[in-house]
Structures are given as structure tokens and as C-alpha cells.
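Input sequence (165 aa), recorded before submission:
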Amino acid sequence: MSPDDDGYIGYVLSDVARLMRTVFDRRVRRLGLTRAQWLMLTRLYRRPGTSQTELAEMLEVDRASAGRMIDRMEKGGWVERRADLVDRRVKRLHLTPEARRVHARMWAIAEATVDDALTPLSPLERARFTGLAARVKERLQSMAGTDVAETAEPLPSRARRVAAL
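Predicted structure, C-alpha cell format:
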């Protein structure tokens, strides 16, 4: 197989990730969320109390861009800034109750999107696919010097059950 072939693993992985984001983006648009917003909600849900600098690193944007996103999310009633208990110069970011409700709805859409995408696979194939992808991810994280726990997304409940097969 050549790198020009549509079956080349690098292209397939890239296309799958891009198409999953595209389908998910369209589905969460009815909640009024942009990609940047849902990414921020997800990161803050998983790591409440994150600082602006930490959030910028997680989102792979500069601090100023993260600050503008946080400002908009704060004005919209999605995020609140709280003073750090040790360093008052640092503001810790937390989701509001409304943002938590939206995150729950967003997560249901994410589960449905994954289920729809994996429909062609049997439960056993899903479990194998998940396990193999996790192993490749771990290898890439070790190559990149990234802590596995730092970037690991929790599996949706149905995916956990399938992965346990």
C-alpha cells in the first residue's frame, strides 16, 4: 500500500477523526455550541479548577485566545472564575450548573455519534477496535512524552461495557 492510497492507515485515522468531529459538531450545534466551546466544556468538566494557562495548553491555543474564549463563556453563564486558594493571582475555572446540564446533553450526543459510527462493527469488533486504538494511543503518548491520564478521555458507559467483552 502506498501513501497515495485511500486505505493508508494515516489517512484513514485522520479521516475518521475529522469526520467524527464534523458529525458531532453538527449535532451539538442545536445546543448552541461551537467546537471551541464544546472542547472547553469537556476539558473543564474533566479537570475542574484548571487555570487559564493549563486550559490553553489543553486546547493547544495561546493564553490570550483562551482568555477571550473564557471571557465569552463567562459572559454566557457557562464558566466562573474563582481565586486560587494559594496564589490569588491565579483564577481557577469551574463550570456553572447550566454548563454541567449542557455537558450531560452533549455527552449523550457524543455517545450516540460513536454508536452510529461504529454500527458496522459487531460488539466483539468494537471491543477489539477500542483496545487496539488504546494501545496505539498509549504508544504515541509515550513517544510524545505525554502522561496517559492527562489526555485520556473517559469512555462512555456503553463503550466501557463493550470494551470489557
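Checked by second reader. The beta strands are 50-51, 79-83, 91-95.
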